[in-house]
Amino acid sequence: MWDDIRVGLRTNLRSPGFAALAVITLALGIGANTAIFSVVSGVLLRPLPYPDPDRVVAVWTSTSSDSHDNHSAGDFIDIERDNQSFSAIAGYRQDLFALIGPDGPALQFQGAHVTVGFFDVFQVPPALGRTFTATSDRGRTDQAVVLSDAAWRQAFGGSPDAAGRTIRVNGQPHVVLGVMPPSFAWPEDADLWMLSPGPAPPPPIEGGLSDRDVRYFDAVARVKPGVTTAELDGNLARLGAAMDARRSATAQPRRIVAGPLYDQIVGPVRPAILILQAGVGLVLLIACANISSLLIARTTGRQRELAVRAALGAPAGRLVRQLLTESLVLGVVGGLLGLLAGRWLITLLLRLLPSTVPRTDAIALDVRVALVTLAVAGLASLLFGALPALQGARAEAASALRAARGSSRGRSTSRTALVVLEVALTLVLLTSAGLLGNSLLRLQAVDSGYRPDHVTLGSIAIPQSRYPTGESQVRFYQRLLDALDARGEVEEAGLGFPGPFRGQNASGTFYLENRPTTAGGERPHANLATISPGYLEAMGVDLVEGRGFAIGDTADAPGVAIVSRTLAERYWPGESAVGRRISFDSDPSQPWITIVGVASDVRQLGLREPPPALVYMPFTQFTLPFTNVAVRSTAPDAAVTEAIRTVLSQVDPELPLADIITLPALITRSMADARFRTFVFGVLALVALVLAAVGLYGLISFSVAQRRREIGIRVALGATPGQVMWPIVRWGAGLALAGAAVGLVGAWASARAIGSFLYGVSAGDPATIAGVAALLLAVAVLASWVPSRRATRVDPVTALRE
Questions:
Q1: Which of 69, 561, 618, 633 could covalently link to 553 via disulfide, CB atoms 3.0 to 4.6 Å apart?
Q2: Which range scores top for mean pLDDT: 133-142, 322-331, 417-426?
Q3: What per-residue confidence (pLDDT) applies to 203?
Q4: From residue 581, how far is each of 102, 596, 615 by CA, in Å?
Q5: Could you check whether the bond before residue 49 is cis, i.e. omega within 30 degrees of 0?
Q6: Alpha-carbon distances of 168 from 157, 352, 440, 492, rounded to whole Å
Q7: CA distances from 417 to 217, 290, 702 (A)
Q8: Distance CA 450, CA 674 (A)
Q9: At 591, is the secondary structure helix, strand, or coil?
């Protein structure tokens, strides 16, 4: 074997150009597979960093097979009290927290309000101090928090004595119980966990909403050992039935569902990652076909050498082993370089991956990824080396030694088949890239409903300890708006929650006046927003009917609302919605809310989502302790940002401004997933196209070289350059058409696989497929034209003399 390796090294070094081309092609293909597999390994294959992670589940409620709803306080209390399947269950609500450390300025962190059993569910020990436990902290009266590793380092500089110290969170002193290790992060990006006394709604909740109307928090649980999935489902079904019996007769039946937390984390991104892995796998197959084609050509040139070996007694198996060893040498070198390329590509991927991809901290070039890379290199060596080795081993000694040139018909047929395969696989990638690119263009052209130019947004969370009532919160918001309006560079300013394209949402059901809901009937449903006067103007949302909110719409005034055009047309088709009344309370004695205006539709949840039915309520009548500030200004973005920060610090120096961004940048960020997929598939398709062009060029160049005498005779007999070139170009175009025909089946399958990622374009879009086929044919013609031009320069005298 060592002799075979030495001969393989010498053989490859005698053809440095070929060896370099093969190794670079392999390194790129293997490196791309290494990078994407590192994502697969870190995100999809690595278990969650909790003890017995398969027993950690997410718990939600559902009214249909595909709905995934949050919990209300009353429902959660019932589940926590009556379930028989969970050893621990906890509720949590994500929030923004303003934190002031012992010596530092105000910081803002994403975190969560959690119930006492939160860390009992995950059973991850803290790095410092301790966490909340049901046995020690149930009924705790003082305020306590647990910090993430990142928050600990920012607030305490990594001091080991942080546990037990007091910090100010949302303006109030809190005891730091402990610090979690860097690997723990649930919910995603959470840096602070605040102990909540229970799952009660965040005060104040106004507008007649009960503790079973507001669904604002999630739940996680740990399943008891030995409890099967069937037993868990049965227990939750009984709980759901009992809870339905306690609801009003008009309430919609609601199931309780539990599923692995792993699926909730990686489920949304699994299809996209696997499709990317399939895409880079196709590129590697194209690279292997290309190298195999080149090896067949080189084996043809070595026919006399192999015939001599056979004449001296080498059996066919010995020749196959030698040729496979030469391929393995290329594969090993390509694999090692692929590891280096993969390491660089992983770093690039981590910069390009959209924020929606979870567990990016687990993406690395670890031992598992390295072993898979080397296995891929070995498999690739067999793929591209097997056919040339088998053909080379069939050399007939006597005929090869007698002939000046051996027959290469079988080898040409094999190379032709490989080139057709390359073209077919390239068509698959080009079609996917074309559909994704077309989809992205259509998505970018979608009207969001906002006029985004010159709009800057930021998030604010005010401490309920210092602003405990709706009245105090309204006073704070009004001072902030008055200060913003006083700035000369501010044209319009407003406050609103949820903010657009931030993943924020609130929704609820309501009643229509004079339209009773039948027993078991579905109540009208809409997304909810609480806004200030000036918010719609700042965001560029037009009023199509009625009026906007005014200063007189106070908490003491009659309830008013603005609805979106979609909601108005859904429930009052062909009529005016202005003056109609709705209610969030089933009690008819409660005050009704009068619709005073209709606003144009907006795509609040994302450009892919249709405009929702939306109810806007004035922040003075439906007040929340968190909101988004929107400012319209033609001043430079940096100046607007500084103005908002200055105003906020004047109103309350302890409140930081979070996630400040312009609305155009926010809309662009919302399309990060689509841009990433399009970019990756575009690069893969470009590499595949280059490889297919190189393979076609090599095949035709080889054919022209073998037909040198024939072409010389044709030229000597008077053939024009066009008569020499046309058959060659026609042959190359025919190969491309044959590959395209074969690839249409794969293109159809790949288009169906990425169908869920497309917007505004069908998986079988004829314009995209026709454009891709035309591009492939043009490249094939160009790859054929270059060697055909060289064929016209054959000297007939020299060719005949040879």
A1: 618
A2: 417-426
A3: 39
A4: 52, 9, 12
A5: no
A6: 16, 36, 45, 33
A7: 59, 11, 15
A8: 21
A9: coil
CA-based radius of gyration for the chain = 34
pLDDT at 113: 86
Q: What's the DSSP call for residue 360?
A: G
What are the CA-CA distances from residue 57 to residues 79, 80, 259, 285, 784 (Å)?
14, 14, 5, 39, 59
For 472-529, the DSSP string reads HHHHHHHHHHHHHHTSTT-SEEEEEESPTTSS---EEE-EETTBPPPTTPPPPEEEEE
- What local confidence, expressed as pLDDT, does residue 478 receive? 93
* Distance from chain centroid for Cα 349: 12
Is the CB of residue 594 less than 8 Å from the CB of residue 576?
A: no
d(CA 323, CA 388): 8
Long-range contacts, 656-659 (Cβ 8 Å, 24+): 656/98, 656/106, 656/107, 656/108, 657/108, 657/458, 657/459, 657/460, 657/629, 658/96, 658/108, 658/458, 658/459, 658/460, 658/461, 659/457, 659/458, 659/459, 659/502
Joined together, the tokens standing for residue 382 give: 């067999």
Instruction: Check pLDDT > 70 for residue 410.
Output: no
State the pairing for strand pair 492-497/525-531: antiparallel
Query: What distance in Å separates the CA atoms of residue 260 and residue 51, rounded to the nearest whole number?
Result: 14
Q: How far apart are the first and last CA of the chain?
A: 40
> b/e for 741-768, b at 16 or more Cβ within 10 A?
ebbbebbeebbeebeebbbebebebeeb
Q: Which residues, 6 or more positions from 304, have their beta carbon under 8 angstroms from its beta carbon?
A: 400, 401, 406
User: What is d(CA 284, CA 688) in angstroms, rounded to the nearest whole number?
Assistant: 9
Return the residue matching tokens 């993969």. Answer: 342
- Any bridge partners for residue 92, and if so which? 114, 218
pLDDT class of 802 with cuts at 50, 70, 90: low
In a 3-state reduction of DSSP, which class is residue 791? helix
Q: What tokens does 117 get? A: 């059993």
Sequence-ordered list of residues with C-beta below 8 angstroms from that of 32, at least 6 positions apart, any chain = 280, 283, 284, 341, 342, 345, 684, 687
Backbone angles phi, psi at 741, to 5 degrees: -65, -40
Q: CA-CA distance, 565 to 548, in Å (whole number)?
A: 14
Q: List C-alpha distances in Å: 525 to 271, 503, 570, 613.
A: 30, 19, 11, 8
Beta bridge partners of 627: 460
Burial class (CB in 10 A: 0-12, 13-18, 19+), 693: buried
How many other CB atoms are there within 10 angstroms of residue 22's CB atom? 25
Determine the 3-state secondary structure of 573 from DSSP.
coil
Percent of the chain with pLDDT over 70: 90
Residues composing the chain = 802
pTM over 0.85: no
Tokens 């150009």: give the residue. Answer: 17
Question: Residue 22 is which amino acid?
Answer: A
CB atoms near residue 245 (< 10 Å): 7
Rounded CA-CA distance 359/265 in Å is 9
- Residue 96: name the closest of 109, 114, 113 by CA: 109
Paired with 151 in beta bridges are: none
- Residue-averaged pLDDT of the chain: 83
Q: Residue 412: which region, alpha, beta or left (left: phi > 0; alpha: psi -120 to 50)?
A: alpha
Q: Which band of pLDDT confidence, cut at 50, 70 and 90, is reported for residue 620?
A: very high
With beta carbons less than 8 A apart as the criterion, state whether 56 and 122 touch. yes
Going by C-beta distance under 8 Å and a sequence separation of 6 or more, which residues neighbour residue 563? 526, 577, 595, 597, 598, 599, 613, 614, 615, 616
pLDDT the model gives residue 250: 54
Q: Given CA atoms 412, 416, 417, 422 in this order, what sign does their dihedral have?
A: positive
Reply yes or no on whether the pLDDT at 197 is more than 80: no
